[in-house]
Specification:
The chain is an alpha+beta fold and 197 residues long. It is built from three helices and eleven strands.
């Protein structure tokens, strides 16, 4: 039964059929709070994956940067998701549990305005989510190879829009990671255009 469920989840993730739901109210409110601190657009996803199944971990959205000091040379935006990843540091049986990194059970997405940090090496030109930019693919599970705050277990996309340099990332969960990141980028809206559902 577990293998059958895992196979279905893998097929859905690979096909781009991960369901997207409206950003929860506290996410919309936090994005609006971030927007009030700056004159450039704070981008947030209008729709995101949410956990499924019997044991649904709580959704969280957190600030990256300081609304009181938005011009600090640090990321300025949000990170959101639920649960915690299974990584090599999770123990000797971590590979048996790695299916828990899929959007059914775990999500870690970031979107921010990048200030100060140089781009990581190894970027490739790409179109993703309808935007032209540069991409750095996740190297797999774990943090080996991380450069600055660009974690190696995330796929990163960098682009410019209206004179602002943006960065989005999604934690690696295997096949389907880049496709889901593209779908989340397509869902990005200026915070003042988000609606509470």
């Amino acid at each position: 039964m577990t293998l059958a469920v895992t196979a279905v989840v893998a097929a859905l993730a690979g096909s781009g059929s991960v369901p997207l739901s409206p950003l929860p109210t506290h996410g919309v409110e936090l994005c609006r709070k971030m927007q009030a601190a700056v004159h450039v657009a704070v981008l947030c996803p209008a729709r995101i994956p949410l956990p499924t199944g019997r044991h649904r971990p709580p959704f969280h959205v957190d600030i990256l940067g300081s609304p009181r000091h938005p011009d600090l040379q640090t990321p300025f935006g949000i990170e959101l998701g639920y649960s915690a990843p299974v990584e090599p540091q999770s123990g000797p049986d971590w590979r048996r549990q790695v299916s828990h990194n899929r959007p059914c059970c775990f999500l870690h997405f970031t979107i921010f305005r990048r200030l100060g940090a140089p781009l990581p090496p190894g970027l490739k030109s790409a179109w993703l989510g309808g935007k032209r930019g540069r991409i750095r693919y996740a190297t797999g599970y774990g943090l080996e190879g991380t450069v600055g705050y660009f974690w190696s277990n995330h796929t990163w996309f960098f682009w410019g829009e209206h004179g602002v340099e943006y960065t989005a990332s999604l934690h690696y969960f295997g096949r389907g990671t880049t496709r889901l990141l593209g779908r989340l980028i397509q869902q990005l809206r200026p915070a003042d255009q988000l609606r509470i559902h």
